[in-house]
Amino acid sequence: MTVAESVKSAVGLSSSTAASSQEMSDARLPLQYRDSCAGLLIPLNRCRQQEYYLPWKCEDERHSYEKCQYEEFKKRVAKMEELRAAKGGARSN
Predict the structure, then answer these.
(1) SS3 state at 36
(2) Using the 8-state DSSP alphabet, how is residue 18 labeled?
(3) Domain count, the chain
(4) Is 3 part of a structural domain of the chain?
(5) For residues 1 and 61, which has the higher predicted lDDT (pLDDT)?
(6) Which of 44, 50, 53, 84 qualifies as a cystine partner to 61, CB 3.0-4.6 A?
(7) How far is CA 12 from the centre of its chain?
């Protein structure tokens, strides 16, 4: 487990859909997309390539990936609110 993965699991941002770093590099995912939803992005990109990027072909994969991204966003917002409440409402910047 890398340092980033251990920090994510300690904070509560780890997910069962996460792909290993080897799988992500094999799929040639850009660094900004290597998050806990990468396990859903890899099959989505594979489907897109096989179906010539027709938007109606990979709807299920796209929907599951976008839902994962939204859930991760909600977790980050909740964590930020929790940290802000611990600081008494003070902003970090």
Answers:
(1) coil
(2) P
(3) 1
(4) no
(5) 61
(6) 44
(7) 13
In a domain, 52, yes or no: yes
**Higher-confidence position of 77 and 2:** 77
| Structure-token pair, residue 71 | 């859930």
- Domain of 82 in residue numbering reads as 17-87
11 domain-assigned: no
Find out whether 62 and 43 touch, Cβ atoms under 8 Å: no
pTM given for the model = 0.76
Helix (H), strand (E) counts: the chain: 4, 0
Question: What's the CA gap between 63 and 35, in Å, rounded?
Answer: 17
45 in a domain, yes or no? yes
pLDDT digits (tens, 9 = 90+) for 37-49: 999 999 999 999 9
- Residues 39, 4: Cα–Cα separation, whole Å: 17
Q: Is 92 or 86 the better-scoring residue by pLDDT?
A: 86
